Amino acid sequence: MADSWPTSDPSGPLPASSGAASSGSADSGPTDSGPEASGPASPGVDLHLDLAAAPGSGGRRAALERALRDAVQGGRLAPAARLPSTRRLAEQLGLSRGTVKAAYDQLIAEGYLTARQGSGTVVAERPGAPSPARPPASGAQPPPRHDLRPGSPDVTSFPAAAWLRATRRALAAAPSATFDYGDPRGTLQLRTALAGYLGRARGVVADPERIVVTSGYVQGLALLVAVAARVVAMEDPGLPFHREVVRRNGGQVVALPTDGRGARTGLLGGAVDAGAVVVTPAHQYPTGVTLHPSRRHALAAWARSGGGLVIEDDYDGEFRYDRQPVGALQGMAPDHVVYLGTASKTLGPALRLGWMVLPPRLVGPVAEAKLYGDFHTGAIGQLALAELIGDHGYDRHVRAVRLRYRRRRDLLVSRLAGRYAPSGIAAGLHALVRLDPRGPDEAEVRRRAARAGLALGTLGDHWHTPAGGGVQDGPQDAALDGTAESAPDRPQGLIIGYGTPGEGGYPAALDALVRVLRD
């Protein structure tokens, strides 16, 4: 695929909408006399009214009254919604200002509208008025009192002040072309900043031309399924949501068992036949083990020999506590491994910023799929992140939250000491707490937790199938040749996230957890 990308919307300019009343930017000061006058307290608003759709007797004033009345009664104009000034509405609808003013006065008299000097005309509050449309609840439950579910960071630690400064710097320096359609690979500024950061902090072999910026990890995974592989091996246990992402994008998922040394890479090309494999080598989710060095080498060799594509999910690689950093697997075979990273854990998932470092042969196809998916990820957030990385504010923030999460992990370990020994805690934002087979099982713990208003994760939710292989403790070298049998009974456990609660809520959440496990 060519390295030039469309810089304008291929659909062409949007036609002007007829029948829409707009107050425009000219409404910065008073334009009308009377109570509905527009002023600083009355920002410009748009209002669509179709007088032809309000049939009935009378002239244009009566049609305007019916259109406004129907809009209020039907809930399209919600209580407190502001209306355009009489002058602007008259201009847009081709009516006299007196006609519009008379219609407003009539609806004020009927109680549909209200007007105050200097505040403009708004829809009146009326008992029994329909509420604004809301999305269906879809069975949504109220948030728990204590949330120890894994998967999210402490969003109260988001560096709002630093992000605001970075955004201001980015906007001040941005040319006008920044606000046009851009490169589907992402802005050059962010790709350049990421290339430097990932090489320095994660050992990734990257240059800006090999990076595609995405709207998070999920989009990156979906693009790879569409472009590179239809049969994808995924770790078992692993995150079920990611398996569903593969399926919903036309892929087939096969299970790759894990044990005490991580993914059983020796099964690839044999018992596990797939064109691509998704792994979490730095900190397997949810068991927390690190992929053994021998298996890292075996996986890289499998990819280099043409076995398939390796997709490395480095979801929490920045958070390590008691060990030397484990570099990215991509550095061992950069032409055969796709590195996926995201700002969701380090900053916050609301940013919707992720990135892929691709083998050169995949850059064009992935960028093309991105182009026809959503054109490109929002440029302003990309430029702000580039600024944050460039002035090392990103590094400072990661160091600060790393220390905070380490303290939380240490508090979790100390509160459970004597009865439980959490595992997988050398890195990341979660811990696996194995349940004693002689004690309550996952289902019973979840029932107790629900009564206590505590949300947590369970290992049982992460297996590919209800029965089969499991996590095996200790070395399992035989698994490298695919001959080892899985344990007949899967271990049960809790997955405790220590990123989700705010600083003030974390101790109380641990108190609830201790009570649940003690009862």
Task: Write up what this structure looks like.
Helix content is 33%, strand content 13%. It has helices at residues 60-73, 86-93, 97-110, 160-173, 188-201, 217-227, 240-248, 293-304, 360-374, 379-390, 393-416, 442-451, 506-518, and strands at 20-22, 46-48, 113-116, 120-123, 146-147, 211-214, 231-236, 252-259, 262-263, 276-279, 309-313, 337-342, 354-357, 430-434, 454-455, 457-458, 493-497. Strands 6-13-12-11-10-7-8-9 form an eight-stranded mixed β-sheet, with helices on both faces. A hairpin with a 3-residue loop joins strand 3 and strand 4 (120-123). Helix 5 (188-201) packs across helix 10 (379-390). The N and C termini lie far apart (62 Å).
Write the layout of secondary structure elements.
Layout: E1 20-22, E2 46-48, H1 60-73, H2 86-93, H3 97-110, E3 113-116, E4 120-123, E5 146-147, H4 160-173, H5 188-201, E6 211-214, H6 217-227, E7 231-236, H7 240-248, E8 252-259, E9 262-263, E10 276-279, H8 293-304, E11 309-313, E12 337-342, E13 354-357, H9 360-374, H10 379-390, H11 393-416, E14 430-434, H12 442-451, E15 454-455, E16 457-458, E17 493-497, H13 506-518
Parallel strand pairs: 5-15, 7-8, 7-10, 10-11, 11-12
Antiparallel strand pairs: 1-2, 3-4, 6-13, 8-9, 12-13, 14-17, 16-17
